[in-house]
Each structure stands twice: as C-alpha cells, then as structure tokens.
Amino acid sequence: MEGDPGSLESFLKWASTLGISDSTDQFQSQSQSPSCLGSSLLVSYFPDAGGRGLAAARELGKGELILRVPKSALITRERLIKDQKLAASVNRYSHLSSTQILIVCLLAEMGKGKYSWWYPYFMQFPRSYDTLASFTWFETQALQVDDAIWATEKAISKAELDRKEALPLMKDLELRPQLLTFSSWLWASATVSSRTMHIPWDDAGCLCPVGDLFNYAAPGEESLPSEVVESWGQSSSLQVCSSLNDVTTNKSGTDVFNIHSQRLTDAEYKDDVAAYCFYARKRYKKGEQVLLSYGTYTNLELLEYYGFILNGNPNDKAFIRLEADIHSSSSWPKDSLYIQQDGKPSFALLSALRLWAIPANQRRSLGHLAYSGSQLSVDNEIFIMRWMRNNCCAVLENFPTAVEEDVLRLHVIEKMQDNPTPNEIEQMLSTSGDEIGAFFDLLKESIELPLSKKARRSMSRWKLAVQWRLS
Ligand SMILES: C[S@@+](CC[C@H](N)C(=O)[O-])C[C@H]1O[C@@H](n2cnc3c(N)ncnc32)[C@H](O)[C@@H]1O
C-alpha cells in the first residue's frame, strides 16, 4: 500500500478494498467499485461535537442507507480466534467473560504491530481515553457527587479485577510486558467499550471499521411516535434506542426496546446482506455532521463507557437522597425516582411523593390516581413542590463549590490547556491558586509550560469532571 500506512487516507483505501462502502451505486448494483467515503459521507472534524466524525457529502434523506460494512471487515472474537495459538489458549480460560476475551484478543492482535492485517485500522484508534476507569483520585474527587465518585471507584476496581483474571491467559499467549500493564488493559477495554457495536451472535460486540467514526447524538424525541413519548411518563423502565436490534440492552445493562424499528433504527447488522448497515436518522444538509445514537445514556454513563458528556443531554438524571418511608410508600423502583435534565421530577418521583405526602391509610384508595399521574389535591401538590425545592437547594448548597466557582474553574482549565503566557498563569494562580497547585502537586509535577502530556491528559479529565458536576 502506498503512502504512510498509518494515515487516514491509507485506512480509507484499505477499507474500500474490504468492500466498506458509502456509494449508493454499490448498494444497488452490488458492484465491487473501490469506493469508501466521498459518495455519501466524508471524514471531517467537529471540535465541539466529538472531534473526528462523519459529515454528509451530499444532502441525505431520512432513512437512507449511507454506509455498509461487510461482515468480513468486522473484528469479532470469533474472527480473531481464528489464530490457532490464540484459540487453543482461549479455550482453557472459558471462565473469562466474552468482553475480557475480546480485550485480550485485541491486545494480542495489536502486539503484531505492522504484521497485523488490521494495522491500518488500529492506527486510527485514539491513543488514550477519558473513560471513568482512567480517572485518578484527584479527577474522581472533582466529580463531587457521592454516587459518581462511587461509580468511578467501581469502574476502576472492575477494570483491575478483569485484568487480574485475564493475566494468566495473556501470559500464556506470551504478550509483550508492555501489553500486560494496567494502562494497556485500560486502553483496550476503553477501545472495546467506546467503539464496539452490537451484533446478535456475540454480546462482546464487534469493532466496525469506518462505522465507528460516527459521533453520538442522544435518541431524539422528535423521531418517536407520540404514543411512545406519552408512555415514557407511565413506564419508567422503558428506554428507547434508535440503533441496534429490536430488543437489546445498552451498556449499562438496561433493557432497550426498539419499539418502532423502521423509524428508529440507524444502524444494525443485517443478515440478508451480511453487513452492518447505517442509515441517516434524519435529513442532513451537505457538510452537516451525521450522528448515530449508541443508546440511551445519562451523562455519567456516557462518561463511564465513552469518556465524554453531552451538553443538555435529554436523558440525564439527578438523584436526590430520599428517606426510606418515601420508597416504602409506593412500589416505584429506586432508579426511577430522579430529577430530569429539564429540572422536572420524573413521573415516578412525582407519583411517589404525592403518595408519601398523604396519610398512610389513604394510600390504598388514592393509589390508582397517583400511579396514573394525577394530582391528589392542591395542598398535596404545593407541599411536595416545596419539599422538592428545599431538598434540591440543600443538595446544591452541600456541594464544595458553587456554580459560579465551577464556571470560573472551567475557564481556568481551558486557559491552562491553551498554552497561557507566564503572566496569565500568575493571574490564574491568584484566583484559583489552591486547586491548580493541588492538581500539579498530585501529578508530582511543577507548573511548567508547555504542559507535559500527562498533565494535559489529566487536565482534560478534570475538565470533564467539572463539566459533569456543573451539568
Ligand atoms: C465511536 S467513536 C466516534 C469517533 C471518534 N470521534 C473518533 O475520532 O474515532 C466514540 C468516541 O467519540 C467521541 N464522541 C462521540 N460522540 C461525541 C459527542 N457527541 N461529543 C463528544 N465526544 C463524542 C467520544 O470520545 C467517544 O468515545
């Protein structure tokens, strides 16, 4: 192959030789013209929406097939295990999960360097990720909310345990020492977590060259039938995902029903054409970023699995501490009781509070009203709204920093990332000196410009933590 084998151009040429295509001619005629991107899509850069991504190369119609990736181009466990040495060893470790095996297989394949058949694709993977499992103690504390700190600690210990369990297999395979480290494990597991796509025959999913260049947009209400939107209020466990199959699960393990698949599916593996097919979820103008829904996620979940958050995520949730008698006065599951991104209580929280606020001996007779979303009385409504306001204020007051301080902190972090002058640094230290000092102390580095790679990476995770608590 001509040119730098690590370049995007070489990757796209390689992809077209595998039959990955965005050409409408090819979809129709099944011809083997070597075309990959330029017909429907173009690789482009979107600084405020995911960085590298795919733009519409022309006007795209809603529901139009825009990319097809043949099965033979997908990286799956079964594909990598075709290597006989790998297969023999993997068979001896059947207690490992399918995801652990995929991570090990990926590391083994990466270890082949330029000799791997997938080398042009691997060269397009990010060098590092900002998923929760890679957060340091400082970055974790910056999340400030107990639940989020706990989720981060859990993600870190899960990654440590997964690696520990897989280590004997990796040693059996004689992987290079560099591939056995925790940071290599974190890199490979973040690659799998943030880039795999659902396939019906393997719950570890597959890596999909070119298809994994689509950035994310939350499944939008505008594409849902109104009866589904209405039913959101009534069925708290129902989540809608505009991609994947008819019934599947998102990465947090929640059931995801693709109720109206024709209208909502924007990517799925299709057996009849033996390919992963991608469709435009809406009409796109030429040059606009074409987005994909990976599933329904809160910002904390996006941070955990993908290492980013969405400004104004319609699926975000804030949980407030509720006394035990609130939980026991209704049958709503705990995870359905939250404040929505728009500041309103979830349907279940409102219903649970309405029931809790009436005398226990009336709950049976008024239960049907509360469960169907009706107000019980004006007094009851005023009481619970006041209760909610007071509780939300208490939560906000308990944060170590106020919103205004966080806005300032974000500004300082962004300035630090932007190669500030010594004068600017002095100014920042006079306003936010303590926290910046603590940041560099914990990194065991002095404040020096340009910032080291380690300081830059840590700063981008610190920024995500501050953005998350602000949102
Ligand atoms: C499947 S990849 C998408 C392509 C990726 N931008 C690339 O250059 O390879 C998923 C990753 O893209 C980034 N990403 C996707 N959607 C995003 C969004 N809306 N905002 C910020 N980052 C996003 C996150 O880093 C995420 O882990």
Number of helix segments?
19
Named once each, the bound ligands are: S-adenosylmethionine
**Chain-averaged pLDDT:** 87
Task: State the separation between the terminal residues, measured CA to CA.
Answer: 47 Å
Helix/strand-derived category reads mainly alpha
Radius of gyration: 25 Å
Tell me the major beta sheet.
3 strands, antiparallel
Helix content: 40-55%
Shape: globular
Strands in their spatial order, largest beta sheet:
3-10-9
Counting DSSP E segments of at least 2 residues, the number of strands comes to 13
Strand content: 5-15%
Low-confidence runs of at least 5 consecutive residues = 221-248, 254-263
Overview of the molecule:
The chain has 471 residues and is mainly alpha-helical. Among the domains are: 131 residues, no CATH class; 82 residues, no CATH class; 68 residues, no CATH class. 45% of the residues lie in helices and 11% in strands. It contains 19 helices and 13 strands. Helix 5 crosses helix 9 and helix 17 runs antiparallel to helix 19. The longest helix is centred in the middle third of the chain and has 27 residues. About 8% of the residues have low confidence. The structure holds S-adenosylmethionine. S-adenosylmethionine binds next to strand 2, helix 9 and strand 6.
Distinctive features:
13 strands, two-stranded antiparallel sheet, mainly alpha, 471 residues, binds S-adenosylmethionine, three-stranded antiparallel sheet, 19 helices
Summarize the model shown.
Residues 39-295 form the SET domain. By secondary structure, the protein is mainly alpha-helical.
